[in-house]
Design a protein that fits this description.
CATH topology of the largest domain in chain B: Aspartate Aminotransferase, domain 2
Strand order of the largest sheet of chain B: 7-6-8-9-13-14-5-15
Number of strands of chain B: 15
Number of helices of chain B: 15
Largest sheet of chain A: 7 strands, mixed
Number of domains of chain A: 4
Oligomer: heterotrimer
Number of strands of chain A: 24
CATH class of the largest domain in chain A: Alpha Beta
Chains: A alpha/beta (648), B alpha+beta (378), C alpha/beta (206)
Shape of chain A: globular
CATH architecture of the largest domain in chain B: 3-Layer(aba) Sandwich
Radius of gyration of chain A: 28 Å
Structural class of chain B: alpha+beta
Strand order of the largest sheet of chain A: 3-2-4-5-7-6-12
Distance between the termini of chain B: 16 Å
CATH architecture of the largest domain in chain A: 3-Layer(aba) Sandwich
Chain lengths: 648, 378, 206
C-alpha cells in the first residue's frame, strides 16, 4: 500500500520507487522539499507532504521547477537538508538556476531528484536529465532497485555535504512507478534550526554570501568537488559486480536496466558467461573501479536508457587506459546493438546478448504461435480520450464549432496537461489543437503566430493552457503577447487543480501541499492587470462558449483572454457524484438516420455514451456516465434527457 | 415522364451517392453555394454563419437531405414543376406564366414601409389574416448588412419586413426549423434559389426522414439578379460610410448603373462596377431571375412614367392556382391595387431573364452540368 | 508467516483492465499479501494516462529471494487476471504461453472505437473460446455483477483477488487478505471486501 507514520524501523513493506525515495529522504532527515508535479515524479512530494509538520518538514508544490529548486536551495543555504523534485523536462526549466547554484555551491545537503520517462509513457518527450549532471559538473546517482532507492538518499545527502554542492539522483518511470520490498530504517529526531549565515567574506564558504563569483575561481572549486566525488564513488556501496571472474561478456548498466539485464541473462541461462557491473554512481564513473572490471573481459555491452551516456564515459576511460587494459569490443547504442530511442525491456536486452553470444531464444510450439496470430484483428484498440464528464471535451467541442463557423482555418496552440490529448489523439479535441511543446509554449507560439497578420495570415490564433500551467510558464509569454499586441485568443482551461498528475495544489487554490490555508492568486485578476479583455465562462454552456469565441475571433488586434472554469470530473469534489441522471429517449433518438447519424457516439465520443447496434439507438452507460449533462446539449432531437440527480 | 421510367430514375438516384461529402465537393468548395440554408437545421453537421454555410463535423452518410435539397445539385426540372403544381403555361424564358400584373398595396402605410409597391407584404399579411397560412418565413432585419431569417405569424409584423435584402438570408434553414414546431401551414418568401430548394424538398429521395414539406402552403418568389457577399460588401461600404447609419438600399433600372444606399445623412451612390466584385460567386451561375418554382413571383415594376413612379409598384407573375387564388382574393378584398400592364413589359422581363440565363451558361469557370440543368428550366 | 517454495520462481502475474477499474489497488493489495507472507515482490505498472480510458497492466513478480524486473518478458506470464474481457486477449497476445492460467471478469468496458461503432467488440463466447485455446486453465467470472450485488462495482477487483487465492498456485489465504485489508482501509469497508474475496474464491474452488 503506501508508507505511513505507524511503520517501524525494520518492517519490510511494499513501496513504490517514489515512496522509497521519499522514505529515504525522511530517514535522512530532510527538512525542506519542493517540487512541481509531473509524471512519473509526483508521488515523492505527495508522500513527503503526508509527513510534513511545522518545524520538522516543510513541503511545497512550487509554481514551477526553477522556483522549487530555488526554494530548496534557500533551505540548504540556511544549513538545512533539502531537496527539489521534478520530471525530466522540469530540469530544463530549473537549469538556469542550477548552472549558477553549482557555481555557488550549497551548505545543508541538497538533492535534485529527477524522474525521467524513457519511452515517453506519460510525456511528450523522452529527454534525459542525466546529461545535465555532466553539463553542470555535479555528481549523479541512479538507484537500481527499491531498497537502494531508499538507501541512496541518506548517502546522497552526506555526499552533498562533503562536497558542498548539489547532488542529482535520477530515477525512471519503471523505478518510480514500480513497487517492491523495502526494509525501513529509523526516522531521525527533528533536525536543526535554519539560519542563513551571511556576514562573512566572499571567500568564506561557511559565512560568506552564496554566489557563483568570482566565476573562474568558483568553477575551479566546483571541479575539485567533482574529483572528490569521483574518489568517494570508487568505494560506493551502490556499485556492484555479479557474475564469473572472467566473463565472456561484461554488461555495464544502471537503474532499471540493471533489472532488465539480470532478467535477460537468466532468460538465456547465460549466468556462467555474462557478468553484470551495476553502477549506482554514474557521473563521474569511478575510473579505477570500472577499469578493474574492464580488464576481465574483451567484450563490453552497455545497457542504459536512453542515450549512450554511460557508454561514452566507459569508452573514454577505455581509450585513456587502452595501453593497460587492451582493446575492447563495445556493444550498445552507438553500434545499434540496442535501440537509441524508446525504453528497454528484458526481451530487447536478451536479444542483444543472444546476438553477441550466439544464443537462440526459446520458442513456443508452432501450433501455439498459430493460435496467437489468430488474435490479430480480434482485439479492438483502446484509444485514449477525455474522461466522461471532462470539461475539456466540452471546451474543444465549442472551439471546433466556432472555428468551423469562422471559416478562416483557425487553430489552437496546445499545451501540457490532459488537454494536450487534443493534439495527440483522434478521440479527443475534434482536430482543433495543432501544436504541442513545452509548458507555456502554447501562448508563446500564439504570441508569434498572432504577429503574422502583416504577412497575410488571416487565421484565428487560439492558445489553451490549464490553470496549473498558467502559473508555471504561461505568464511571461502572455505578457509578451499583450505587449506586442499579438492577435490571440488565450483560453485558460481552469479545472481547479493539477488534474493530470493527481490534483496537487497550485497557486490558484487556497490550500497548499501541507493542507494549510494560503492566499490564492487569481488568474482573471492577473490577466486583467495586463489591461486586456478578460471573459469568463462555463465550458459546459456550449452555445455561450461558442458564441463568445466567434465574437472574439471577429475582434481584431490584441490579446483576448477567455477563462473557462469547471472542475475536473475526477476531482475529489466531483468524483462519484452525478449532477444529472442522463437517459436517452429511444422514441426521439434519430440513431444513424439522416438528421443525426449518431452525432453523440460517432463525433462527440464520450465514453458514457453507447451505440446499441441492434436497436439502432444511442444509450447511456450508467456505470460510466459522470452525469455532466453536456451531451444533452448536442443532441439534435432532444432525445438525451437530464434529470437533476438526488443528492444522497 | 411517367410510371416505370420515373421509378427507374428514382431508384437510380437513390443509389447514387449524395451526402455531405458530395455536397462539399460539388457545391461548398466550388463556390456554388447560394447560402439559401436548405442544408441547415436538418442535422447538427451543417450550420449557417453570417451568410455562409459551414460544415461543423464530418457526416459519413452516402445519401443525405443536405445534398438532396440543395438547389445546386442535379435535379429533374420536369419532376420539380409537377411537384410545384405549376400550370401548363410554360415559357422558355421565365417559367410558367398564369398571369402577369402590375400591383401595389392599397394601404399607403404599407407601401412606405416596403421596398417598392408593398405587394409581398400585403399578400403575406392577407394569407396570415385569412388563415391560409399560420406562419410566414421571410428575410427580416438583422444586424448591420446581415439580414436574419425570421418567422412571423402576426400580419402587422409581417408588413414591417418588406425591405429588400442584398445579402442572402438563410430562409430555408428557418423553414427547416419552424416546420418542426407547432405551425401547421407555412408560407415562405423566397429568392429563386430558395424557391428551388423548397421545390426539391417536395421531391425528397432520402428515405426514412421527415422534412415537414407538407406544411409548405405558399411560396412567394422574389425576382433576383444576384446577392452580395456579406464580408465583401461590408468591406466596400465601410470605406464609404458608417454602416450603422444605413437605412436601406435599392438598385434603380440598369441605365443608372448604381446601387443607392440610403443613410440617415442622405443617399450614397455606389457604381455597380464596384458592387459587382461583391456578388456571390454562386449567383454568377444562376439562370433563374424570376423564382420560377413559386406560387407567384414579385419584383420591381418598369413603367413608362419612369423610375420615380415605377419604384412604388410591383410586377407579379402568377404560376400556380394557389398563387392565382391569393392574388384574386387580394383583389376582391381590395388590399391590392392593380393597374394596366404596359405593352411590351412581359417581353422586357423575358429579355432580362434570358440575359441572366445566357450569362450563367457562359460563365467561364461554371460547372457545366449544373448550368445545363438550370438552362432546361424552360 | 512461513515462506513456502513457489511452484515457479519467479511466479509472474499480470493483472489487466481498464483505467478506473481498481487495477492498481488490486495489484497493491495482492502484492501486499505476498510481502506479508515473506516473499519478494516487484510490481511494474504503467499509469499516468491510465485514468483516461486506456488499458492498464500491472506486472507482478513473486520470488522467494530476488528482485525481478518490473517488466515480465514476452510470453512469460504464469497467471493472467483480466478485470475486463478483451484485455485478457490483449495480454495473452504478448505474454501468453501454453502453460498460462487465466481468470477473466466477463463485464466488458467498451473502447471508444466500439462505442462509436467503428470497431467490433468480440462476442463473449468468442472471447471464452480464444482464452481457452491459449491457456492451460481458465475461469470466467461475473465479478462486476457480484460486486454490484455487494453494492459497489469497483469490488469486482477484490472478487478477482479472491479467485486468485482460490487457485492455490500461491500461498495466500483469506487470513492474510483480511490483515492487509484491515490495515489499508477504513473499517466500514472491510466487511464488503471480505465478502467479495470469499465470492471470488468460491467460484474457483467449487
Amino acid at each position: 500500500m503506501s508508507i505511513d507514520k505507524q511503520q517501524r524501523e525494520g518492517a519490510e513493506v511494499l513501496l513504490m520507487g517514489n515512496e522509497a525515495i521519499a522514505r529515504g529522504a525522511l530517514e535522512a532527515g530532510v527538512q525542506v522539499a519542493a517540487g512541481y508535479p509531473g509524471t512519473p515524479s509526483s508521488e515523492i512530494i505527495e508522500t513527503l507532504s503526508r509527513f510534513a509538520e511545522p518545524g520538522k518538514l516543510y513541503v511545497e508544490w512550487s509554481a514551477n521547477e526553477k522556483v522549487a529548486m530555488e526554494v530548496a536551495a534557500a533551505a540548504s543555504f540556511s544549513g538545512l537538508r533539502s531537496m527539489c523534485v521534478m520530471k525530466q523536462n522540469g530540469v530544463n526549466v530549473a537549469s538556469d538556476f542550477l548552472l549558477h547554484l553549482t557555481g555557488s555551491g550549497t551548505r545543508g545537503g541538497m538533492l535534485l531528484v529527477t524522474c525521467d520517462d524513457p519511452g515517453a509513457l506519460s510525456s511528450v518527450n523522452e529527454g534525459e536529465s542525466r546529461h545535465f549532471a555532466r553539463l553542470m559538473e555535479i555528481p549523479l546517482l541512479e538507484p537500481a532497485d527499491f531498497q537502494e532507492a531508499k538507501e541512496m538518499m541518506p548517502w546522497a545527502f552526506t555526499l552533498s555535504e562533503e562536497i558542498r554542492n548539489i547532488v542529482m539522483v535520477r530515477s525512471v518511470t519503471r523505478m518510480s512507478h514500480a513497487s517492491g520490498n523495502v526494509v525501513l530504517g529509523a526516522l531521525p529526531q527533528p533536525g536543526g534550526k535554519g539560519e542563513f549565515l551571511c556576514d562573512g567574506k566572499i571567500s568564506d564558504p561557511e559565512r560568506g554570501p552564496v554566489i557563483s563569483a568570482p566565476v573562474v575561481e568558483k568553477h575551479r572549486l566546483q571541479q575539485e568537488k567533482i574529483r572528490k566525488a569521483a574518489a568517494i564513488f570508487e568505494t560506493s556501496p551502490f556499485n556492484a559486480y555479479t557474475g564469473p571472474e572472467r566473463p565472456e561478456l561484461l554488461i555495464i548498466t544502471s537503474s532499471a536496466c540493471r533489472l532488465y539485464s539480470d532478467e535477460a541473462v537468466s532468460l538465456l541461462g547465460a549466468e556462467g558467461r555474462v557478468g553484470i557491473l551495476k553502477l549506482g554512481t554514474t557521473w563521474p564513473i569511478p575510473p579505477a573501479y570500472v577499469k578493474k572490471h574492464l580488464t576481465t573481459t574483451e567484450k563490453v555491452l552497455i545497457v542504459e536508457e536512453v542515450l549512450p551516456f554511460l557508454e561514452e564515459q566507459v569508452k573514454i576511460l577505455a581509450a585513456e587506459q587502452a595501453r593497460e587494459i587492451g582493446i575492447k569490443t563495445f556493444y550498445g547504442k552507438n553500434d545499434g546493438t540496442l535501440p537509441m530511442t524508446g525504453e528497454l525491456n528484458p526481451d530487447l536486452v536478451a536479444a542483444a546478448i543472444g546476438r553477441i553470444l550466439g544464443i537462440a531464444p526459446a520458442t513456443f510450439p508452432a501450433v501455439y504461435n498459430e493460435k496467437l496470430r489468430s488474435l490479430a484483428g480480434v482485439v479492438p484498440q483502446r484509444e485514449q480520450t477525455f474522461c466522461p464528464g471532462c470539461p475539456h471535451r466540452a471546451t474543444y467541442w465549442s472551439i471546433r464549432e466556432a472555428l468551423q463557423r469562422d471559416g478562416r482555418n483557425g487553430f489552437v496552440c496546445g499545451d501540457i496537461g490532459c488537454y494536450a490529448m487534443a493534439v495527440l489523439f483522434q478521440a479527443a479535441g475534434f482536430h482543433t489543437a495543432k501544436t504541442l511543446h513545452a509548458m507555456g509554449s502554447g501562448i508563446g507560439l500564439a504570441s508569434g503566430f498572432g504577429k503574422l497578420g502583416s504577412f497575410g495570415m488571416d487565421q484565428p490564433v487560439l492558445a489553451v493552457c490549464g490553470d496549473s500551467t498558467f502559473y508555471h510558464a504561461a505568464i511571461p509569454a502572455l505578457i509578451n503577447a499583450v505587449h506586442q499586441n499579438a492577435n490571440v485568443i488565450f483560453i485558460v482551461l481552469d479545472n481547479s487543480g493539477t488534474a493530470m498528475t493527481g490534483f496537487q495544489s497550485h497557486p490558484g487554490l487556497a490550500v497548499n501541499a501541507m493542507g494549510e490555508a494560503v492566499p490564492m492568486v487569481d488568474i482573471a485578476a492577473i490577466c486583467g492587470s495586463m489591461g486586456v479583455k478578460v471573459v469568463s465562462g462555463d465550458p459546459f454552456a456550449l452555445r455561450q462558449t461558442r458564441e463568445t469565441l466567434n465574437r472574439l475571433m471577429e475582434e481584431r488586434g490584441g490579446v483576448k483572454v477567455l477563462i473557462l472554469k469547471q472542475s475536473c470530473a475526477l476531482s475529489p469534489e466531483k468524483k462519484g457524484k452525478k449532477q444529472y441522471l442522463v437517459r436517452v429517449d429511444e422514441h426521439l433518438c434519430r440513431g444513424d438516420a439522416c438528421g443525426c447519424n449518431r452525432l453523440c457516439t460517432r463525433i462527440f465520443r464520450c465514453p458514457g455514451l453507447l451505440w446499441d447496434r441492434e436497436k439502432g439507438k444511442a444509450r447511456i452507460d450508467e456505470v460510466i456516465c459522470a452525469g455532466c449533462g453536456v451531451c444533452a446539449g448536442i443532441c439534435p432531437a432532444e432525445a438525451i434527457r437530464c434529470e437533476e440527480a438526488q443528492v444522497p | 415522364m411517367k410510371g416505370n421510367q420515373r421509378s427507374k430514375e428514382l431508384a437510380e438516384k437513390e443509389s447514387t451517392p449524395g451526402g455531405q461529402k458530395e455536397l462539399e465537393d460539388a457545391v461548398l468548395k466550388t463556390g456554388l453555394c447560394t447560402g439559401c440554408g436548405a442544408c441547415v437545421n436538418l442535422c447538427p453537421y451543417q450550420a449557417v454563419y453570417r451568410d455562409r454555410i459551414v460544415t461543423l463535423h464530418h457526416c459519413d452518410l452516402t445519401r443525405g437531405r443536405c445534398y438532396d435539397f440543395c438547389p445546386r445539385t442535379p435535379a429533374d426540372l420536369n419532376t420539380l414543376q409537377e411537384a410545384c403544381d405549376v400550370g401548363d403555361d410554360l415559357t422558355p424564358e421565365i417559367g410558367a406564366v398564369g398571369g402577369f400584373f402590375i400591383t401595389r398595396a392599397a394601404d399607403e402605410k404599407i407601401r412606405r414601409r416596403a421596398q417598392h409597391g408593398g405587394t409581398v407584404s400585403t399578400l403575406i399579411a392577407l394569407a396570415l389574416r385569412e388563415g391560409l397560412i399560420d406562419a410566414a418565413v421571410l428575410a427580416g432585419e438583422g444586424e448591420g448588412l446581415l439580414p436574419q431569417a425570421v418567422t412571423v405569424s402576426d400580419p402587422e409584423i409581417a408588413v414591417g419586413q418588406g425591405k429588400s435584402r442584398f445579402v442572402v438570408s438563410p430562409t430555408v434553414a428557418e423553414f427547416n426549423r419552424v416546420n418542426r414546431t407547432d405551425c401547421r401551414r407555412i408560407g415562405v418568401v423566397a429568392t429563386p434559389c430558395q424557391a428551388l430548394a423548397l421545390a426539391k424538398m417536395r421531391t425528397q429521395t432520402v428515405k426514412d426522414t421527415q422534412s415537414g414539406i407538407e406544411k409548405l402552403q405558399l411560396v412567394v418568389g422574389l425576382f433576383c439578379g444576384w446577392a452580395l457577399s456579406w464580408r465583401n460588401l461590408t468591406a466596400l461600404l465601410e470605406k464609404k460610410m458608417d454602416i450603422a447609419a444605413i437605412t436601406g438600399m435599392d438598385i434603380p433600372p440598369s441605365r443608372y448603373h448604381t446601387l443607392e444606399v440610403y443613410t440617415k445623412k442622405g443617399t450614397v451612390r455606389v457604381s455597380l462596377d464596384e458592387v459587382n466584385s461583391c456578388v456571390r460567386e454562386s449567383c454568377r451561375y444562376c439562370g433563374d431571375m424570376t423564382a420560377e418554382f413559386s406560387d407567384l413571383s414579385v419584383g420591381s415594376a418598369r413603367l413608362p412614367e419612369g423610375w420615380d413612379t415605377a419604384r412604388f409598384w410591383n410586377q407579379v407573375v402568377v404560376r400556380t392556382k394557389r398563387g392565382s387564388d391569393l392574388l384574386e382574393l387580394a383583389r376582391s378584398k381590395g388590399v391590392l391595387e392593380f393597374r394596366e400592364v404596359p405593352a411590351g413589359n412581359l417581353d422586357k422581363l423575358k429579355a432580362a431573364s434570358v440575359n441572366k440565363k445566357r450569362a450563367a451558361a457562359s460563365h467561364p469557370s461554371g460547372p457545366r452540368s449544373v448550368v445545363d440543368k438550370m438552362g432546361q428550366a424552360g | 508467516m512461513t515462506k513456502q517454495l513457489l511452484v515457479k520462481d519467479p511466479y509472474n502475474i499480470i493483472i489487466t483492465g481498464v483505467g478506473g477499474q481498481g487495477n492498481v489497488l488490486a495489484s497493491r493489495v495482492f502484492s501486499g499479501m505476498l510481502v506479508r507472507t515473506g516473499y519478494r515482490v516487484t510490481i511494474g505498472e504503467t499509469f499516468g494516462m491510465s485514468q483516461r480510458g486506456g488499458s492498464v497492466m500491472s506486472h507482478i513478480r513473486v520470488s522467494a529471494a530476488k528482485v525481478w524486473s518490473p517488466q515480465i518478458p514476452k510470453g512469460r506470464a504464469d497467471l493472467i487476471v483480466a478485470i475486463e474481457p478483451v484485455e485478457a486477449l490483449r495480454v495473452l497476445a504478448d505474454y501468453g504461453n501454453p502453460a498460462v492460467k487465466v481468470l477473466v471478469n466477463m463485464r466488458p468496458i467498451y473502447p471508444v472505437g466500439v462505442i462509436t461503432g467503428e470497431a467490433e467488440y468480440p462476442a463473449p463466447e468468442k472471447i471464452r473460446e480464444a482464452v481457452r485455446s491459449l491457456s492451460a486453465l481458465s475461469f470466467f467470472l461475473d465479478a462486476t455483477d457480484e460486486a454490484v450485488k455487494l453494492g459497489n462495482p469497483i469490488l469486482g477487483n477484490i472478487v478477482m483477488i479472491g479467485a486468485v487465492a482460490g487457485l492455490g498456485v500461491l500461498p495466500v489465504d483469506q487470513g492474510v487478505f483480511e490483515t492487509v485489508i484491515r490495515e489499508g482501509m477504513p473499517a466500514s469497508r472491510v466487511e464488503a471486501n471480505l465478502r467479495a474475496f470469499a465470492i471470488g474464491m468460491a467460484v474457483v474452488t467449487k
